[in-house]
Amino acid sequence: MKLALSVVFLISVLSGCAVNSNVPPTHFYFGSYATTLYEYKKDPSEQTRNAHIAELRRIISYSGEHNLITPPGIHAELGQFLLKSGDQAAAINEFKAEQSLYPESEKLMSLMIDTAQG
Q: Does residue 117 share a domain with residue 84?
């Protein structure tokens, strides 16, 4: 009886593992986003800002090259940095890219575009 229960338990555990192994991998690539953002927030210098902007651009580039979806907020955050640096046209392009990828962001991105334009 103990053997039969052990076998049933083992089968249920293994079948549970098999189900979990079929979970599709994430379709987002975050690269070193968390690290560069943390460094920028901890020490908001031009060097850490530029490193974080470079990482945002790298995430967008890598995602495009590997047919992945750019994670939510990446284009919008890059747009914010571009807007603060005075590059309104590039900022608007990033806001539009965010809006295109994530239609639920339309109201916020429209507000950001209006802000950038005027």
A: yes
Q: Is the same domain home to 76 and 118? A: yes
pLDDT beyond 60 at 12: no
Q: What is the pLDDT of residue 46?
A: 97
Same domain, 83 and 118: yes
78 and 64, same domain (yes or no): no
Strands of 1-118, DSSP E: none
pLDDT in tens, 40-85: 999 999 999 999 999 999 999 999 999 999 999 999 999 999 999 9
d(CA 23, CA 16): 12
Length of the chain: 118
Q: Which residues make Cβ contacts (< 8 Å) with residue 50, sequence separation at least 6? A: none
Short-list 53, 99, 54, CA closest to 76: 99
> Tokens representing 42?
């901890």
| Structural domain boundaries, residue 100 | 72-118
Tell me the C-alpha distance between 43 and 41, whole Å.
Answer: 6
- Do 58 and 94 lie in one domain? The reply is no
